[in-house]
Amino acid sequence: MSLIRLISSTVIAALLCSSCADGRREPAEKLDAIGHIINVKPDSALALIQEINRDDIISKADRASLALLHSIALDKNHLDVRDDSILQPAIDYYLRKGTAEEQVKTLYYSARIYENSNDYENALSTLTDAESRIDKDCGPGILVLLYSAKGRIYQQILDYSKAAENYHSAARYSNLDSDIERYVSNTLREAHCLIMCSQTEKAAGLISGIGFHKESLSPRNLNKYHQLVISIDEKLHPERLHSDVETYLENIKDPSLTDWLLAARIYLKTGDGDKAFDCLNKYDREKNATYHYLMAQAYESGNDLSNALKEYKKFIPLYGRMGKDILVQDTKFVEEREMHQEMYEKEKSRRMILSLAVIAILLGLALAFVCIANIRKQLKIESLRKENLQRQIDDLMQEREELAAIENSNREGREIINERLRIIDRFVMSDAFNDSIFEAEASGELRKIISDRGEFVRQNRLIFNQSSPNFISHLKERGLSDIEIDHCCLYAIGMNGKMVTAFTNIKRHYHIGSDVRKKLGLGGHDTNISIYIRNLYREINAL
Length: 543
Hints:
Blueprint (H helix, E strand, L loop, with lengths): L1 H21 L4 H11 L4 H10 L8 H17 L11 H10 L2 H17 L3 H13 L7 H17 L3 H17 L3 H17 L3 H11 L8 H18 L4 H11 L8 H10 L3 H9 L7 H13 L3 H58 L4 H38 L3 H25 L3 H15 L2 H15 L1 H9 L4 H11 L4 H8 L4 H11 L9 H14 L1
Helix pairs in contact: 1-2, 1-3, 2-3, 2-4, 3-4, 4-5, 4-6, 5-6, 6-7, 6-8, 7-8, 8-9, 8-10, 9-10, 10-11, 10-12, 11-12, 12-13, 14-15, 14-16, 15-16, 16-17, 19-20, 19-21, 21-22, 21-23, 23-25, 23-26
């Protein structure tokens, strides 16, 4: 069937090229021919669209058709568009005079422009408008795209429950359209979101249904299927993990698709260090923080503490502050084990010599003398322990007096910031280790502090007023309002745009970000606003 479609599309393209050359066909016929090949040969369709002389397109209907086809071709060729100049004729015409399907399709590609610009608020609003225009004549194909896009955006803003609902709708319309590949793809996405919502058993039911299609899955969907099986069994059936990863490696024939780090992590979790090493040795991409962390654990499982320590130290520059935190825990553990091993050997030799001396000297002493010696020894130890305890208490009291001098607002602010950074680190951890459990737990903690967001923003602003008054003064001089300065303070502590959106839950966040850019003299594509604010903060403090 695919060969027949390819031949037919090639013939249509050839006829179309011929018609463009001699100019005998009407614009509507040319656009209709492009519409027939755009799904099977989007690259050819885009080339033909770019050859059309816009001056030959007179009617508003044809201009709208060309605008929509051009937007579709760009999207299918993975060329991100971030303004609506190309699509505008379709928006102007179809939203007033088009059919329901033309309106839904136009709004979908308008939402794609917002999505490409990370303007998720307007993207969702546009998709909701499109959803309200659906009628019985709308084909399932455009509805699959619509609900997939809604699911994708909800997933971006961490609303996994709504993301799962929309992926479910996309899968249902894919099934109606007899598009098994898209049905499987959207069902896998739904299962992933359900896992993030702690609905693992429901996700397991979906994955079980997908298992019937395993033989017909594309390599990428098959890869995602096995990864979700592993994620589910980590929570529900940990005894199956070793078998799961064996099946995964056996079924994924393309090594470039295989997640070797995931396989290594599961082998380490199930106690198979040798196979974990094999997987890590097959990892042929850039050696990242996760790789060195897992390699250190693999060495540690084989008691090769020296190499484990080397790998943990490689982990530091690649993973930044969180890497240092983990190093403090893990390398300290390794070093202590080496130290204890050495002390154990020395102690063993010392005790042997002491035992021989005691046997030789005290063999004839009475049991009472031995008891008295032991009692004196215990009393001495207790005395030393009390002295040490008193010394520690004195040190702590001195530290307490020093800490009492710090202003309460600074202390409270640091505690709030440290808690927020810990949650952000867990999101980073989930991405580095491909571990959905970390992400789910971090999402739960993030929801808990959402109700205190106003207090957090206030405290954060107070800290910057006290610790960096020049930074706050600079922002006020540029004309920033209080709420804009609050957003800048959130950027300055390490949040990005997505985190600020999820944390503040302010619908106008993207407009606020745009206003901040204008007041600071930044263009729409100059730099990432969060990176710019952090660099500005460092520069002002360095003065």
